[in-house]
Amino acid sequence: MTLLIIGGTGTLGRQIVKTALDEGYQVRCLVRNLRRGAFLKDWGAELVYGDLSLPETIPTSFKGVNAVIDAATVRPTDNYTAETIDWRGKVALIESAKLAKVKKFISFSSVDAAQNPNIPLLDLKLKLIAELEKSGLNYTVFECAGFFQGLISQYAIPTLEKQTIWLLGSMYPTAYIDTQDAAKIVISSLKIENTMKKLPLVGNKSWTPEQIIRICERLSGNKANRNSTSY
Predict the structure, then answer these.
(1) Closest by alpha carbon to 141, among 111, 120, 121, 115?
(2) Mean pLDDT, range 78-96, rounded to an integer
(3) How does residue 72 score in pLDDT terms, banded at 50, 70 and 90?
(4) Alpha carbon of residue 65 to chain centroid
(5) Residue 195 and residue 188: Cα distance in Å, rounded?
(6) How far apart are CA 105 and CA 10, in angstroms?
(7) Integer distance in angstroms from the first to the last C-alpha of the chain?
(8) How far apart are CA 120 and CA 224, in angstroms?
(9) In whole angstroms, what is the distance from residue 144 CA to residue 122 CA?
(10) pLDDT in tens, 106-119
(11) Quick check: 200 and 111 in contact, CB under 8 A?
């Protein structure tokens, strides 16, 4: 089976690529920066140029593809808007998948998207799910809570470097999951013919920001500089 993976250079995407290769899948990665994706080629993946902000670059990458895993999302450092990547680009992906008659389309959202449609990025995720529902594709949307790897820049480094950690007053416990474990679940789902349309991709324990900070403090020996704010 040949997989087309979008977002393969990202935190979750690279683990999905690695796991898929380890499982014996043929992996093709859609990347807009071939140099940045060179490590994926070293692992054994095929690289093809494509840019979600340029929908015309997408269709040719679907030749011979059986399943699509879309782990891409707009980054804070990107020059693109979420509307460009997480809506127009993703709709182009869905249309290309329909034309290519792929057997499976996997995407990702947030566990709390439905409760927060006022947040622009989450609203786009909800619109994309609606687009998948009417596409006729065999799809699964994994709803994520958060990844442990993201805590490094959010809590660990600021604690080590004695920077301010900003806490929102309404932050609730989060069931973080390791990206390696998440990738194994995603790849395993390809072997199941009829999976649920929406599946949670979460850890087995929820953590509050305070619990995470205390662990960082204990391991680093530093006192974290906390500062609370609200929306």
Answers:
(1) 111
(2) 90
(3) very high
(4) 20
(5) 11
(6) 18
(7) 46
(8) 31
(9) 12
(10) 999 999 999 989 98
(11) yes
| The overall pTM is greater than 0.85 | yes
Q: What is the Cα–Cα distance from 117 to 102, expressed in whole angstroms?
A: 30
The two tokens of residue 86 are 């997480």
pLDDT for the residue 43? 98
CB 4 within 8 A of CB 70: no
Cβ(52)–Cβ(41) below 8 Å: no
**Residue 217 has which token pair?**
């403090």
pLDDT in tens, 201-220: 999 999 999 999 999 999 99
Tokens of residue 175, six digits: 């069931």
Residues 6+ apart with CB under 8 A from 110: 116, 122, 125, 143, 144, 145
* Cα–Cα distance measured from residue 51 to residue 79, given in angstroms and rounded to the nearest whole number: 13
Please give, one letter per residue, the 3-state secondary structure of the chain: CEEEEECCCCCCHHHHHHHHHHCCCEEEEEECCCCCCHHHHHHCCEEEECECCEHHHCHHHHCCCCEEEECCCCCCCCCCCHHHHHHHHHHHHHHHHHHHCCCEEEEEEECCCCCCCCCHHHHHHHHHHHHHHCCCCCEEEEEECCEHHHHHHHHHHHHHCCCEEEEECCCCCECCECHHHHHHHHHHHCCCCCCCCEEEECCCCCECHHHHHHHHHHHHCCCCEEEEECC
